[in-house]
Amino acid sequence: MRTILISGANRGIGLKIAHKLLKEGNRVSIGIRNLSSISNGILDPKEWSPNQLLINHYDALEINTAKKWIDNTKEKFGSFDSLINCAGVFSRIPFLYEDSERNEIIKTMNINFLSIWDLCRLSWEELVSSKNGRILTLVSMSGKRSKGDLAAYTSSKFALMGLCQTIRNNGWDKNIRLTVICPSWVNTDMAKEVKSTNKFDMTQPEDIAEFCSTILKMPKQSVPFEISLNCNLEV
Ligand SMILES: NC(=O)c1ccc[n+]([C@@H]2O[C@H](COP(=O)([O-])OP(=O)(O)OC[C@H]3O[C@@H](n4cnc5c(N)ncnc54)[C@H](OP(=O)(O)O)[C@@H]3O)[C@@H](O)[C@H]2O)c1
């Protein structure tokens, strides 16, 4: 059994991961922006014991909420050994952006990159203490190659990929293993405007939850650094 922090677990990929890991008996501490967004769904707090599911306020743009989430988890569960970074935003800001779009670039970098750096940094002591820590981070195929002109999103994910490689290096001797998950389109709200691929042909969030569950059970010598998931042929 693991004790796992998951950001952005009120919907999308994070929600499916949290649900699967709870069903498997793990303790899950979720960090979400809007506490009421979780009720009446598959993570309804009434359906799960408070000894297994902890719901915390977390806004990726406010570092103090990350600190409180981590402190709260340590207080309620004693310790934790895994962190799954799912919170993220999409952006269509192109290379030749207008001045009025500059703030969206900064916000995208803050949510998709800097806040994950902070969550990993603030969790580090606990992950080291566990002697078997795991970090799983939703990057994207956009963190590996640039298709088209999604300059802000792609840059945030490339930065995140560089950060994850560096965290992997830092954690290696401390038995912390980090995995980046790099899907193309996944059937969630984030991809609902996509016309090029229908939602049934996209990777399903349940499939990513399956991978996460498996990775968390793997011994450190068999944890992959990267999982790329192509729903379309990329050559
Ligand atoms: N869907 C795809 O096609 C796809 C492909 C590759 C990679 N990814 C990556 O996978 C991750 C999850 O995406 P998804 O498909 O599950 O997207 P989603 O359905 O749009 O969900 C995004 C999640 O991030 C949370 N979030 C956004 N801004 C936040 C903030 N400031 N503070 C805290 N939480 C915040 C959202 O919370 P609210 O409900 O409060 O907004 C929501 O829980 C993201 O990093 C995304 O870039 C997605």
Task: Explain this structure.
- The chain is 38% helix and 15% strand.
- The mean pLDDT is 97.
- The longest helix has 29 residues, at 102-130.
- Helix 1 (12-23) crosses helix 5 (205-217) and helix 2 (63-77) runs parallel beside helix 3.
- The chain has one domain (3-229): 3-Layer(aba) Sandwich (Rossmann fold), CATH 3.40.50.
- The protein is an alpha/beta fold and 235 residues long.
- The relative contact order is 0.15.
- The protein is globular.
- The N and C termini lie far apart (39 Å).
- Strand 4 (82-85), helix 3 (102-130) and strand 5 (134-138) form a beta-alpha-beta unit.
- Strands 3-2-1-4-5-6-7 form a seven-stranded parallel β-sheet, sandwiched between helices.
- NADP nicotinamide-adenine-dinucleotide phosphate binds next to helix 1.
In short:
This protein has helices at residues 12-23, 63-77, 102-130, 151-171, 205-217; strands spanning 3-7, 27-32, 53-57, 82-85, 134-138, 177-183, 226-229.
Ligands bound, unique: NADP nicotinamide-adenine-dinucleotide phosphate
Order of helices and strands: EHEEHEHEHEHE
* Number of H- or I-type helical stretches: 5
Largest sheet: 7 strands, parallel
Q: In percent, how much strand structure appears in the residues?
A: 15-25%
- What gap, in angstroms, lies between the N and C termini? 39 Å
Instruction: Enumerate the strands of the largest sheet in spatial order, edge to edge or round the barrel.
Output: 3-2-1-4-5-6-7
Overall domain count: 1
Rg from alpha-carbon coordinates:
17 Å
**What would you give as the CATH superfamily?**
NAD(P)-binding Rossmann-like Domain
Helix content: 25-40%
Mean pLDDT: 97
